[in-house]
Amino acid sequence: MITWQLKPFIELTTIQLYQLLKLRVDVFVVEQQCPYPELDDKDHKKGVYHLLGYDCDQLVACTRLLPKGISYPSVSMGRVAISADHRGGGIGHQLLEESLKNCQSLWPNESIEIGAQEYLTSFYIQHGFVKTSDTYLEDDIPHIDMKLAK
Q1: Structure confidence by residue, pLDDT tens digits, 25-70
Q2: Which residues pair with 33 in a beta bridge?
Q3: How far apart are CA 10 and CA 12, in angstroms?
């Protein structure tokens, strides 16, 4: 059972911050072999929240929720990550549903835009997102912009 916590940057403990950054680096930099600027100065911006999913004391899933104007003109989500040993059991769907629920709570009736890795297009379509761009490379990984309109 996953326990969810939603926190702004300022409320993250040092342990939570370490776990969050480690999970994201493990997934995006090490596993996907993609050196990119993980520390992009968005984590601590005003209005940004971090959704943390714990299995006991282990951080196994996370998402960054951003208000309008930071990554996209609309509300957005990013840095969606699940630890390799927790994939395949539906946690991705739980993470996205929890992310959408929290976006709705934080920013009612706002559309949500994302830059998804292309191989996850059908996953996001299952949750109501539609493609809004052609495929493009971001850090040498095919991505596509998608939007959940409200």
Answers
A1: 999 999 998 888 889 999 999 999 999 999 999 999 999 999 999 9
A2: none
A3: 6
Is the separation of the CB atoms in 114 and 124 below 8 Å? Answer: yes
CB 19 within 8 A of CB 13: no
Please identify which residue in the block is written with the tokens 């927790």: 86
CA nearest neighbour of 132 among 121, 123, 120? 121
At 48, list the tokens: 């940004």
**CA–CA separation, 37 vs 20, rounded Å?**
15
pLDDT at residue 60, rounded to an integer:
98
Q: Which residue has the tokens 């490379």?
A: 137
For the residues 74-93, what does the mean pLDDT come to? 95
Percentage of the chain modeled with pLDDT above 70? 100
Question: 54: part of which helix (H) or strand (E)?
Answer: strand 49-55
User: Around Cβ 84, how many Cβ atoms within 10 Å?
Assistant: 12
Q: For residue 79, which of 43, 44, 108 has the smallest C-alpha distance?
A: 43
Statement: the pTM of the whole predicted model exceeds 0.90: yes
Sign of the dihedral through C-alpha 114, 41, 9, 83: positive
